[in-house]
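Notes, Module 5: Reading structure tokens.

Key idea: the token line is not a picture. It is a compressed description, and you learn to read it the same way you learned to read a sequence, by spotting repeated patterns. We will look at two proteins. The first is printed below with its tokens.
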Amino acid sequence: MKISDPTAPADDDAMKIPLLDLKAQYATIAEEVQEALDRVVTSQYFILGPEVEALEEEMAEYLGVPHAIGVASGTDALLLPLLALGADAGAEVILPAFTFFATAGATWNAGLRPVFCDVDVDSFNVTVDTLEAVRTERTRAVIPVHLFGQMAPMEEIQAWADAHGILVLEDAAQAIGARREGGPGGASTMAGAWGQMGAFSFFPTKNLGGFGDGGMVTARDEELAERVRKLRVHGGRQMYHHEMVGTNSRLDALQAAILRTKLPHLDGWAAARRENACRYESILREVPEVVVPPVLPGNFHVYNQFTLRVPRRDELREHLSQRGIGSGVYYPVPLHLQECFSSLGGGAGDLPVAEALCREVVSLPIYPEVGLAAVEMVATEIGAFYAG
């Protein structure tokens, strides 16, 4: 079965309803984007500089955090905070087995030991129970991932982490704009503003995506924020003077300008995603074979992905593909069973929920411009598949 690349522009001849259509979004903001690009090109200031500083200020205000630091990618937004910890080599970091590889890869590349935990079957996220099941005396940090746009139970996780002296780095790559009742923000607090640090990705497929790679680190602690700022420019704040060994992870001005153009539209796009999700749910709840994961109490879901649990997943995807409907699998292999982590000793059956999800999950078109008529067509085809 040929599965389309979700990062590629939609091909109307190949898919009537693609999993993602970046062209559709661009058409609504093309003039604004061109003005932003012209502004940067005219300035000839391409690396960090005023555009990046303005984006950092606007993101900090939007998220309700004191510090936001632009970096080169979402992966670096995980790596640099882990390096900033200054933990001893081999110290343990707990993270979910059911998530994108970068969470574990950044941990490994920071010289730390990833410890994989299981997830909640309803939310796909970690809980205090799944974290506590693998905590040891060497646990230095935890990375709760707000998968697909729904937040983990951060008030419980933060209290647990504080009790054990564990740093919390939120992986909010898929959850910009998501929020949960309570927390440091008062009535509700954004993803990335609960833990000591947060990581965001601006990969083009994200709800707030650039025209290439980009990322953002958030921090509530001034010292950690300053360490990240140094690490992104080879370990120093003054040219040719290096206080630590860092790397080149600078967000460029063109990406910042594009993201600044998109940021005011983000909440409206999230509202459209939520409307699409509501329509999916209203139809698919009548299909007994399909499990639509619930939105947990207190959560504001932003649906970077709309992900179901289904039997006969690959057959369903083939059925949809034959009818010009795109779909995706996030993720087919849990991290503890990836070949590169075999030295850590994980085996099949260790984390049963994560392993089951990798066999069952399928993601459907949810982008803002897809439209309710297309959503209804997709949901109806799923119902027809299982009815047949």
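Here is the second protein, with the sequence above and the tokens below, as before.
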Amino acid sequence: MKRVFLFVLDSCGAGAMPDSESFGDIGVNTLRSCASSPKLNIPNMVSCGLGNIDGLDFLGTVNAPVGAYGKLAESSMGKDTTIGHWEIAGIISPNPLPTYPDGFPEEILEPFKQATGRGILANCPMSGTEVITKFGEEHVKTGDLIVYTSADSVFQIAAHEEVVPIDKLYEYCHIARKLLQGKHGMGRVIARPFIGDAVNGFKRTSNRHDYSLEPPKDTLLDVIKANGLDSIAVGKIYDIFAGKGTTEHVYNTSNANGLEHAMHYADQDFHGLCFINLVDFDMVYGHRRDIDGYALALNEFDQWLPKFMEKLGEEDLVMITADHGCDPAYTATTDHTREYIPLLVLGKKVKPVNLGTRTGFDRIAATIAEVLGVQMDTSGESFASEIL
């Protein structure tokens, strides 16, 4: 194969894993919750075999799927963006990244306050919309930074764009990233800028930026780049891998913008991987527990997919998957949910086979490495021979 397009529909989980309850998630299933919306209409992904995946027959099955299909269980001990994407790219994380359900200790906050010269508000786990509603006005008055976390390994800094300019907020995130190493090596530092006022409400902007912990070893992206092939990052992929292993990158302002970028690269004569993250599923709809919004976002991708496939040739391969769950109907928390991920594999040469349920997101990395003809050290087993 010459080109591989890997789409991560961020948080589009395919049902609870056997150990989900130990992660605080009971009976979760992101796709099932989306199917409860009367707005869901995804005939193209269903025709590819999405409903034929184990446990997803509520989406509708077809007699002759046009793609290979299956679902994968996570081997790593996590349910977050960093761990999920790293595993997709070949790295298993046996130990969870540090989390702070009671807020961050002073040994983290004090050097951060000294380095930024600003005070701290919040310091607790909270949803992003809730935290700016509760602390936004005080932040505007004092200039203190809103620092918060979630069930994930994240250090999030929210600031009003007119109080803390974007570049300054990014500078503060760089400071935090340098401080948060070793035992406090959280997966991501996230800039969460917002606008608005207390009267009309505060609203987050698209100027979010992630600062990931650097992967502990080479990933699929590094291997592809080292072999002289193209490793293109679309959306927050560049940030998730701390810039390692990419030859070109572009950020998205929305899912629609990400699809525009993918369409652009479909017209380019590259050789390698185009790795695309579509974060709105998670950020805009999953965490906000917006079932209908999530369903409509899936519709948008589904309606776009045939136009994209028309641009592809004999030596192109498409994979559609996720990195974790974020069940929009699960109200016990507003956090990610520990779930299987769906997998669809499409292309003119792809055999429409049922891959069943397998363990290890890293099977994706192993398969992509094999179809691109590069050698990669990963525990994942390639399924290339089964689909081609």
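Summary for the second protein:
- Residues 88 and 361 are 5 Å apart (CA to CA).
- The chain is about 30% helix and 20% strand.
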